[in-house]
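Feature request, filed as a ticket because there's no other form

It would be nice if the structure record came with a short human-readable summary line next to the tokens. Right now we just get the raw output. Example of a typical job, pasted below so the devs can see what we mean:
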Amino acid sequence: EKRKRLRGAAKMETTSMKLGGLRGAGARRVRGGGAARRGRSARPVQVCARAVEKDVGLMGTKAGMTSVFTEEGKKIPVTVIGLKDGGNVITQIKTTETDGYNAVQVGYDQKRETLLTKPELGHLKKNECPPMRTLAEFKLENIPEGLEVGAELDPTALFSVGDKVDVAGKSIGKGFAGAIKKYGFKRGLMTHGSKSHREHGTTGPGSTPGRVFPGTKHPGQMGDKRVKVKKLEVIQVEKDLIVVKGAIPGKPGNLMTVTKAKGKV
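Raw output as currently delivered:
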């Protein structure tokens, strides 16, 4: 009888351990279940998109840089942003009631249908829009009046000479770079027996706290990231080009987005 009682106790302990392991696995798989069981609502999932823009923008292609002379005779450097055939077409208008936020989706660079995927073609055909290679959203506080799906955006109506704009695009990739090139660190001595010429140097404190702080500048990939240059002055606007003062990210042929500058201009 004593052996039977010991066997039964061992079986019960094994079963409880298995159930505990299953509970732990379930807790790892399902988030917020405990809060729901305790009568509290789970934390809502919030999707963070790009920053809210001041108005609908345009997409264009970087053509290159040149110089122009002002009426006062001053020579200034400018960048030309060209617009390909087909222009910028509104492909979708999102509202708070239907999508949870206000945004205008714009298509750029009209291409043949074989260069697009079936989901992209279905999305564009549903809104009776031509096949566009690139789609981008401009998140807004409120949808401007007069915008319709399928309408082409006119650069001369959105921008005028003297306006300040923000231009964003992917910067030129520099590959894996050291801290001197990437962040402008000073190098060590090149003579007098120095063994640390272009090395990074110390990366953090010693035994207290005994770790490297997050955000410490280290060697790594440089460039090839989305960069926004703010408050560039518009020098010229035509149906098929926008000329801005100064430089913008990327090489010629790079895809750019142009929006009205936010804040004080």
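Something like this underneath would help us a lot:
The chain is about 20% helix and 30% strand.
Residues 17-33 have pLDDT under 50 and may be disordered.
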